[in-house]
């Protein structure tokens, strides 16, 4: 089968089209013939060698297509071996494309439970873009963050898959959403999705500017921090507010003043990806609410995965970048 393979770690050009063996049959697993796959920042980290993926390797976590055995239209849930607990994944958990061949290929093999019925009303590109950011954001907002209708939410960032999905899900549940970005056109695009407004997070006073957009300037009930700006995120909170952390692109370490934290009655909550139960919750949410489909920035042919990665790393995209497998 055709696939995109990396034989070394490095910059986007290490991603090259190649012929590789089709996945073998094994008990409890199914093969999905993929029509599209979506990029995630996680794929960049895999390409760079952050997860020590075996070489040669086919990356990719997200995909949409049909089960070969049943011809059922499915999306791929990339959360493998989560385990039986809801609080956190088990020790065997991993993301598809880390150590098992991923979705930058014509075929992918996944545990049967991870081939999930494709939601109604989504194009193939939109369906491929849904699983990783969808289940990650649903868990962050609702399973972990406990977001409720009428609450205020601050989303750090405005243009990535998590940010755009967070705006869509949160506004559908009746929350008031503010975003941050260094580019006004991205804030305007987030407003088109349902965000109330946004602030420039490159400004020195952006925390104060964000708080000023909350009722009475009291701060946010929930902050979604996918970049690692903890100190500023906590300062954005209203008393008793929650900060959900799910990324570290901007910083690998954080320092917090302790006394203001506990006097503020704040919560700092870590999360990543999501379980089968989170995915089921997301699909029920999509059935029960009017939610905008995943935002697609651009599509590339599978063979141009390296170019797609260059666009992802340049930070120019608004929404998801998708590979088509025609």
From TrEMBL:
SMART domains: PKS_ER. SUPFAM superfamilies: GroES-like, NAD(P)-binding Rossmann-fold domains. Residues 10-323 form the Enoyl reductase (ER) domain. Pfam families: ADH_N, ADH_zinc_N. InterPro entries: ADH-like_C, ADH-like_N, ER, GroES-like_sf, NAD(P)-bd_dom_sf, Zinc_ADH-like. Gene3D superfamilies: Medium-chain alcohol dehydrogenases, catalytic domain, NAD(P)-binding Rossmann-like Domain. One of its GO terms (molecular function) is oxidoreductase activity. Signal peptide: none annotated. This is NADPH:quinone reductase. It comes from Frankia canadensis.
């Amino acid at each position: 089968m055709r696939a995109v393979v990396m034989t070394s770690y490095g910059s986007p050009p290490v991603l090259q089209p190649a012929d590789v063996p089709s996945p073998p049959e094994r008990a409890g697993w199914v093969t999905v013939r993929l029509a599209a796959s979506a990029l995630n920042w996680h794929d960049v980290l895999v390409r760079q060698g952050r997860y020590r993926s075996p070489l040669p390797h086919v990356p990719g976590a997200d995909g949409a297509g049909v089960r070969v055995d049943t011809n059922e239209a499915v999306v791929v849930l990339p959360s493998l071996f989560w385990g039986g607990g809801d609080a956190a994944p088990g020790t065997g958990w991993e993301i598809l494309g880390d150590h098992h061949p991923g979705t930058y290929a014509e075929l992918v093999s996944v545990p049967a439970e991870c081939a999930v019925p494709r939601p109604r009303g989504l194009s193939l590109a939109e369906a491929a873009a849904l699983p990783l950011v969808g289940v990650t954001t649903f868990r962050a907002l609702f399973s972990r963050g406990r977001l409720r209708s009428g609450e205020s939410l601050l989303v750090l960032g405005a243009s990535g898959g998590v940010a755009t999905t967070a705006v869509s899900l949160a506004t559908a549940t009746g929350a008031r959403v503010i975003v941050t970005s260094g580019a006004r056109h991205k804030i305007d695009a987030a407003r088109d999705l349902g965000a109330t407004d946004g602030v420039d997070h490159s400004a020195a006073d952006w925390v104060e500017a964000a708080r000023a957009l909350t009722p009475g300037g009291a701060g946010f009930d929930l902050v979604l921090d996918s970049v690692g700006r903890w100190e500023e995120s906590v300062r954005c909170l209203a008393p008793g507010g929650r900060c959900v952390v799910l990324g570290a692109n901007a910083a690998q370490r954080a320092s917090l003043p302790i006394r203001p934290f506990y006097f503020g009655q704040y919560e700092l909550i870590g999360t990543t990806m999501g379980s089968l139960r989170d995915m089921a919750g997301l699909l029920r949410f999509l059935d029960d609410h009017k939610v905008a489909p995943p935002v697609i920035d651009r599509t590339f042919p599978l063979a141009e995965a390296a170019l797609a990665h260059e666009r992802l790393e340049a930070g120019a995209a608004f929404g998801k970048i998708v590979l088509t497998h025609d």
